[in-house]
Design goal:
Number of helices: 6
Radius of gyration: 18 Å
CATH class of the largest domain: Alpha Beta
CATH topology of the largest domain: 2,3-Dihydroxybiphenyl 1,2-Dioxygenase, domain 1
Number of domains: 2
CATH superfamily of the largest domain: 2,3-Dihydroxybiphenyl 1,2-Dioxygenase, domain 1
Structural class: alpha+beta
Number of strands: 16
Distance between the termini: 32 Å
Protein name: VOC family protein
Strand content: 35-45%
CATH architecture of the largest domain: Roll
Strand order of the largest sheet: 2-3-4-1-5-8-7-6
InterPro entries: Glyas_Bleomycin-R_OHBP_Dase (IPR029068), Glyoxalase-like_dom (IPR025870), VOC_core (IPR037523)
Pfam family, one: Glyoxalase_3
Largest sheet: 8 strands, mixed
Helix content: 10-25%
Shape: globular
Domain VOC: 8-150
């Protein structure tokens, strides 16, 4: 049975070493970046968001070492920058945590936290969340998963933040490199009750649900063949990740990306070395 309280991909978390520099880098790539947020003290992290519809990207940095962010710090120390985890949208995090507990897994959370948000009119409000995580060891392809319940969607999906010079509209796919894609896809499929499908090139897709972005597990070699001419320097053979983003105007995308743009077939890409450890591939849509 499918999970009742967890629907498709909500956002992708890109761990970065210098939060403000990463935000400026993404601004230079034509993204509209939110004001900086600081999470609750036990989280010890800060972020910038890049809002799409219905999903988004999060640039996340460690501000103060805490027990909660120990896995994120380990990721930065061992793998460097890049996609460290993927969030699903939770309808009800407490109920979702109990659903995976009933499947024999011990959830982390649910955890409540918030961050202040400066709204376009200058007033300050709060973005409030309740999350739960699958056990840290349950990380298909080396990428952790969790679920996020948005208590205040109006302070996250702010219309002024959702239009980007590079014409990005939403996440189409999360591509995760792994030496044995079928095994990693089967692992995720068990965790979220979704059926993997093998593609013609041997990559394996797992739908995230709710007509949201798909997960695609593939070898680093297969990833390179999908985007010929794009340097993959910095991507790990297990856990190196890419985002396929739908663009409303590829000409605008190419112009906004400037010298970072690499044409590859029908896609316009930004190599991981120029996007804080994440391959970005823009496609028409």
């Amino acid at each position: 049975m499918a999970l009742n309280n967890v629907i498709g991909i909500d956002h992708a978390v890109v761990m970065v070493k210098d939060l403000d520099k990463a935000a400026e880098n993404y601004r230079q790539l034509g993204f509209t970046v939110s004001p900086r947020g600081t999470h609750s003290a036990h989280m010890g992290t800060g972020n910038y968001t890049i809002m799409f519809d219905p999903d988004y990207m999060e640039l996340l940095g460690v501000l103060t070492a805490t027990e909660h962010n120990a896995p994120a710090r380990t990721f930065l120390d061992t793998r460097g920058e890049g996609i460290e985890r993927i969030a699903f949208t939770a309808v009800d995090s407490a109920a979702g945590a109990e659903e995976i507990r009933a499947r024999g897994l011990t959830p982390i959370g649910p955890t409540d936290f918030e961050r202040p948000v400066t709204l376009p009119n200058g007033t300050v409000s709060a973005a409030k969340f309740r999350t739960f995580m699958w056990p840290t060891a349950e990380a298909p392809g080396g990428v952790r998963i969790f679920a996020c319940q948005h208590k205040t969607r109006e302070t996250v999906w702010i219309p002024e933040l959702m239009t980007h010079a590079n014409a990005a509209r939403r996440i189409k796919q999360v591509l995760i490199a792994a030496p044995e894609p079928a095994n990693e896809a089967a692992h995720l499929g068990r965790l979220i009750d979704r059926e993997p499908t093998t593609e013609a090139d041997g990559a394996v897709t797992v739908p995230s649900g709710g007509e949201r972005a798909d997960f695609v597990y593939l070898t680093l070699d297969q990833l390179g063949k999908r985007y010929p001419g794009v340097p993959l320097t910095g991507l790990s053979e297990r856990g190196g990740a890419a985002l396929v983003l739908v663009s409303g105007d590829l000409a605008a995308t190419e112009k906004a990306l400037g010298s970072a743009a690499v044409r590859s077939g029908t896609a316009i890409c930004v190599p991981p070395a120029k996007a804080n450890g994440t391959l970005l591939a823009f496609i028409a849509g």
